[in-house]
Design a protein that fits this description.
The complex is a heterodimer of chains A (about 425) and B (about 325). Chain A contains 18 helices and no strands. With about 425 residues, chain A is mainly α. Chain B has a single domain, classed as Rossmann fold (3-Layer(aba) Sandwich). Chain B contains nine helices and twelve strands. In chain B, the strands form two sheets. In chain B, strands 6-7-8-3-9-10-12-11 form an eight-stranded mixed β-sheet, with helices on both faces. In chain B, a hairpin with a 2-residue loop joins strand 4 and strand 5. The chains are: A mainly alpha (about 425), B alpha/beta (about 325).
């Protein structure tokens, strides 16, 4: 009874953690879009027989082949077999999502197991696993998948196995590096001193610490697998008995949908592929931002730029005020210029103006670099750059009139 | 009663530990960081044994050796009459049940994903044989013991301040009622205002449960406050060893004197000759020949760099390794 209560307590806490996780994702703007699309697609996939108006596998009963969209057939029927395209679209969600999710999960399990083993156990286990990773990473996957499906037959099981067998390497490397950080933490040492076994430490301390990484990578790899599956189906290497978006595209192309102008039969599966991949990418990227504090919203490139721009302008105005106060410094060369002949003035002016232009360019580059680096530029540095920039109008002013008052006025106006 | 009449809880005999250094280029002669060299000491049950020294002088390695977490290159360690250095890993796991450790940094020593109950009950769960209700009760009692309330059990470490986190760490260390506790600079990461609270808590708990502490610190004032006996280490070697009161009253080694000269506290009543040490701690990869401290020692003699000074008895339970006292070796 007590243990039951304990298990119940743990279960509740796990549910709470999952709920909190989804809440975080929901609060993230991009993540919310991904979640909504994913939920929509999941409902379509689960309740496909209820939602789809026709049986898409039924190729014998439809008399009207290649019909245009109507209320009866929302997206028309296919040209060669007369299947209802709208129903096919809905059924296609099933294969795409299931392949993506199952392969993503298998990759997560494989990658985490091998990555944790390599990182925590170290020694020869680490060496063996990492050498295998090195070998697998340099093998190009797609040609290999084409060969494998030719040899082993085109079924979804083969596709999942092949993608999983070659997809875990990147994840294992990332997990390994994370584990090597965590295993030196003092709480792991405390557990070791208390007599914990390696299994206990891996299960209780290390796996939870990399779980965030696993969820994120599952979302992102799933998106990649979905695209790859569509590509394979398009090439005719998918499961020939199931309906998938890639196969719909291949059918539409081979039956000459473009010639007949049936753009909807090409666009529909394309939109399906786009939506599913987009939702997974959104969720994955949102998770990355949530879980990786360095990628928080605050460091968004555009925001940094905007923020910097505001301070930048303020600094510009501030530096100009300073310049207009420091009259003497800029007037100094003018008497010399007045004494020299007019031709000399022109000659002399050409050089400083060129220099000034260069300085302005340098200042601009410095400002752009600062903005690109996304860091706060020390005020002094900006002020210095701006002084160089502010000298340009003065140079022009000198060319027109060397009088000090005009100089000051120009500076003030700007 | 003098401590020599009692059976020591922990005894180290000529323990040395060296870590191999990565070679800069192939075929280079193998080099070692000599973290601990030829250390012999005895820790008696119920006392607090201080370990003092600059950073990198082998304090933590010494503590790891006593916990069986660090393989020993030579020498023997006896814990409670059993030879720790000859144990199999299974026996070692059993022996470690009666040892625990408190870490310097309370922030990294508590898993942020665990609730306070999970953290403190972890040793119980690893040992096994406790029901959930028993664990709840034990953890609740322990929390009260260290000055937290039972209601904190389901909160997470991030909800607590540094001092409170250190209390949680102490509760976790004491939940199995260990005989021997390593305190690895338990207060140096905390605010000065909570130093005294944590130290007093440790001393109260020691009195209650008769635990032996190995207290690592680089703060002499803290060591003087809490420990009964102490060892002063420099570059992995024992410089001075014995009763804390005797060491502070009559520091025999120039290094100890230099350390005392650098104490900031105002209420330490020890002879204060401010002799600032020259230079940096030499690399432990190739320590200076002879006495490790020569080159920085203000009272260096010609013989210091020729041979290593032996540990000689200055008085009862007070030893120092310095040629200044070499004349007493014959006694």
């Amino acid at each position: 009874m007590k243990t039951l209560k304990y298990i119940g307590c743990k279960l509740l806490r796990a549910l709470y953690a999952i709920g909190r996780f989804f809440k975080k994702l929901w609060m993230h703007k991009q993540g919310r879009i991904g979640l909504i699309i994913f939920a929509f697609l999941a409902i379509l996939a689960i309740f496909a027989p209820l939602i789809a108006p026709y049986d898409p596998y039924d190729v014998t009963q439809r008399a009207a082949k290649g019909s245009t969209p109507s209320w009866e057939h929302l997206l028309g029927t296919s040209i060669t077999t007369g299947q209802d395209i709208f129903s096919m679209l809905i059924y296609g969600t099933r294969s795409s999502l299931s392949i993506g999710l199952i392969t993503g999960l298998v990759i997560a399990v494989l990658g985490s197991l091998l990555g944790v083993a390599a990182g925590y156990l170290g020694g020869w286990v680490d060496t063996v696993i990492m050498r295998i990773v090195d070998v697998l990473l340099v093998i190009p996957t797609l040609p290999l998948v084409i060969v494998m499906t030719n040899v082993l037959g085109t079924s979804y099981v083969v596709i999942v196995i092949v993608f999983a067998a070659f997809g875990w390497t990147g994840l294992a490397r990332v997990v390994r590096s994370q584990v090597m950080l965590i295993k030196n933490a003092n709480y792991v040492k405390a557990a070791e001193i208390a007599g914990a076994s390696r299994w206990y430490i891996m299960w209780r301390h290390i796996l939870p610490a990399v779980s965030n990484l696993l969820i994120m990578s599952t979302a992102l790899t799933s998106a990649g697998i979905m695209v790859a599956e569509a590509g394979l189906s398009f090439l005719g290497l998918g499961n020939p008995t199931a309906i998938s978006w890639g196969k719909m595209l291949a059918d539409a192309q081979s039956s000459g949908a473009m010639l007949f102008g049936h753009w909807w039969s090409i666009l529909a599966p394309g939109v399906g592929i786009f939506l599913s991949v987009y939702s997974f990418m959104r969720i994955g990227l949102a998770l990355e931002e949530i879980l990786n504090p360095r990628m928080r919203k605050g460091s968004n490139m555009l925001k940094v730029f905007k923020h910097l721009n505001n301070t930048y302008l303020e600094e510009v105005f501030a530096s100009m005020d300073d310049v207009s106060k420091m009259k003497g410094e800029y007037q100094a060369p003018s008497p010399v210029l007045e004494e020299a002949g007019p031709s000399d003035i022109a000659a002399e002016m050409a050089a400083p103006e060129g220099a000034a232009v260069e300085e302005v360019a340098a200042a601009g580059v410095a400002g752009a670099q600062a903005a690109a680096a996304g860091a706060f530029v020390p005020a002094a540095q900006i002020a210095a750059a701006e002084q160089a920039a502010a000298e340009a109008p003065f140079a022009e002013a000198r060319a027109e009139d060397a009088a000090a008052e005009v100089n000051a006025e120009k500076g003030g106006e700007r | 009663m003098t401590s020599n009449e009692r059976e020591p809880l922990l005894k180290m005999e000529h323990v040395s530990v060296a870590f191999p250094v990565k070679k800069d280029f192939p075929f280079q002669k193998k080099r070692y960081v000599k973290a601990v060299t030829d250390v012999s000491l005895e820790i008696y049950p119920g006392e607090t044994f201080g370990v003092v020294g600059e950073s990198g002088c082998g304090k933590s390695t010494l503590a790891n050796c006593t916990l069986g977490m660090q393989r020993v290159d030579s020498g023997k360690i006896f814990f409670d009459g059993q030879e720790l250095t000859a144990m199999t890993s299974r026996q070692l796991k059993e022996a470690r049940r009666s040892m625990q450790v408190i870490f310097q940094d309370p922030f990294s020593s508590l898993n942020p994903r665990f609730s306070v109950f999970d953290l403190i009950s972890e040793p119980l769960r690893i040992k096994g044989g406790y029901t959930y209700a028993e664990m709840r009760k034990t953890v609740g009692d322990m929390l009260k013991e260290v000055g937290l309330s039972e209601g904190d059990m389901d909160r997470f470490p991030s909800d607590f301040s540094g001092g409170q986190k250190q209390r949680i760490g102490i509760a976790r260390a004491l939940i199995l009622k260990p005989k021997y506790l390593v305190c690895d600079e338990p207060v140096s990461a905390l605010d000065v205002s909570v130093h005294a609270q944590i130290l007093n808590l440790l001393m109260d708990l020691q009195e209650k449960y008769h635990i032996t502490y190995l207290f690592i610190s680089h703060n002499l004032a803290v060591v003087k406050r809490v420990s009964d006996r102490a060892v002063v280490m420099y570059l992995g070697k024992v410089m001075e060893y014995g009763n804390v009161q005797k060491i502070f009253k009559n520091p025999a080694h120039p290094y100890t004197r230099a350390l005392m000269g650098s104490i900031f506290d105002v209420d330490i009543d020890c002879p204060r000759e401010r002799k600032r040490l020259q230079g940096e701690v030499p690399s432990p990869i190739n320590p200076p020949p002879g006495c490790r401290f020569c080159g920085r020692c203000p009272e260096e003699q010609p013989c210091c760099s020729l041979s290593e000074p032996p540990l000689v008895k200055i008085e009862e339970d007070h030893y120092a390794a310095c040629f200044l006292h070499a004349d007493r070796a014959e006694e």
